[in-house]
Amino acid sequence: MFGWEFPPHITGGLGTACFGITKAMTQLGNHVIFVVPKTYGDEDGNYTKLVSASDVSIDLSQNLYKEFWDNISYIEINSKLIPYLGTDDYFNVINKGEKYVALEKNNIHSKKYEFSGKYGETLLEEVERYAMVAAKLAKDNDYDIIHAHDWLTYKAGVISKNISGKKLVIHVHATEFDRSGENINQMVYDIERFGMDNADHIVAVSDYTRNIIINRYGQSPEKVTTIHNGADSFVTNDYAIERTVKEKVVTFLGRITFQKGPDYFIEAASKVLKVYPNVRFVMAGSGDMLNRMVALVAKKRISKNFHFTGFLKVEDVNKMFALSDVYVMPSVSEPFGISPLEAMNSNVPVIISKQSGVSEVLKYAIKVDFWDTDAMADAIYGLLNYPALSKMFISKGRNEVESIRWEDTARRLNDLYNNLLR
Question: In the Cβ-directed half-sphere of 71, how many Cα atoms lie within 13 Å?
């Protein structure tokens, strides 16, 4: 398996999902080698063999890599990124338009690439280099199938397939249309489409995502299978937190980006406060829309009842849930959505958008259209104002989360693998 993050070093649901899947797969008797750009030493390696791409040396003089270099156009995207340039040379290519001369055999040498494993400015460059390291791992390891999680690893998966001849499954946890709406990053879309076109099978985390894959990426319905995420790998969160505020607390937790609908949360908050002033709203997370959301809260004149926490680590997330009376996920486009399951596991009733994959598997969540801030505000008010309603969603929701099991996800993946290997 190729992935970009693994707990505890995660930025969203992708790492949580990868941990749940690998743990369940190994408990079914599989041996999983999970490759990440960088390990930090504190990951849970009890269920899978973690390999850090930063620790892999590749000898580019070998025929294996020469063949890859000769056929680099096969995996090339419309990008100025060159995998083998240092920082200064890369700066010159991008900013000075200098021509880059292809590497000759006599100056190709053994090299390790140090990956940040982050989502920064050099992300696409790291994706390219990660794909090259995948070639080395594909050649040196013994395995039956290749499984690549999300677009960052699709090239690695395709290269491994080409070198080994093994079947490739790509796992779509999100698409560029989820992240960016109609204003997509064409380079990212091209990588996603490339991975889908070259995969032997595609796993979607929801029917919602499956429809996007078929309709927006031109994939055959027979090639795409929906396998929902699980939830039972969560640690039971029964925190005893002393509340320092008397008001009720309503929480938004996630990246503050277009996809997550933070502006709709603020609009609903403004409507609730007009009729129920004894409540505090919390927006936990960071993202490119943060400054705009701070300005929107000021414009709505609700700053005294609204709080921005910034990015929260896992322990602080658990504490935030323990302080919360309601959790809201107003996502514009959410392939699945693990955070509502975490909230329900922490005895918090949830409101989720109908434009989410998790709405397909939850019964005990209030579902609204992301754009219907009147309905969202009514739902928040109802859960705050009617204790019996809130208690029902808490008790039923906790039981429901415990029944959504990663083991079921793993069994379906096993069946898919076996069908491909026949």
Answer: 13
Mean local confidence (pLDDT), 30-52: 73
Q: What are phi and psi of 290, to 5 degrees?
A: -60, -50
CB proximity list for 265: less than 8 A, separation 6 or greater: 252, 281, 283, 328, 330, 376
Q: Please check whether residue 407 is in contact with residue 27, taking contact to mean a CB–CB distance below 8 angstroms.
A: yes
Supply the DSSP string of 271-318, one letter for each residue.
HHHHH--SEEEEEE---TTHHHHHHHHHHHT-GGGEEEEE---HHHHH
Terminal CA-CA length for the chain: 20
CB 17 within 8 A of CB 174: no
Contact 385, 276 (CB under 8 A): yes
Cis peptide leading into 221, omega within 30 of 0?
A: no
Structural domains of the chain sorted by starting position, each given as residue range(s) with its CATH number in brackets:
13-226 (3.40.50.2000), 248-403 (3.40.50.2000)
Longest CA pairwise span in the chain (Å): 75
Q: What sign has the CA pseudo-torsion 300, 301, 304, 308? A: positive
Instruction: Tell me how far apart the alpha carbons of residues 206 and 359 are, in angstroms, rounded to a whole number.
Output: 9
The model's pLDDT over 204-263, given as tens digits with 9 standing for 90+, comes to 999 999 999 999 999 999 999 999 998 765 555 566 677 778 899 999 998 899 989 999
Residues 213, 172: contact at Cβ < 8 Å? yes
Closest by CA to 336, choosing from 210, 421, 420, is 210
Residue 245 CA to its chain's centroid (Å):
33
Beta bridge partners of 366: 351
Helix, strand or coil for residue 407? helix
Candidates 199, 229, 167, 172; CA nearest to 21 is 229
Whole-model pTM: value is: 0.77
Q: Which of 344, 303, 307 is nearest to 327 (CA)?
A: 344
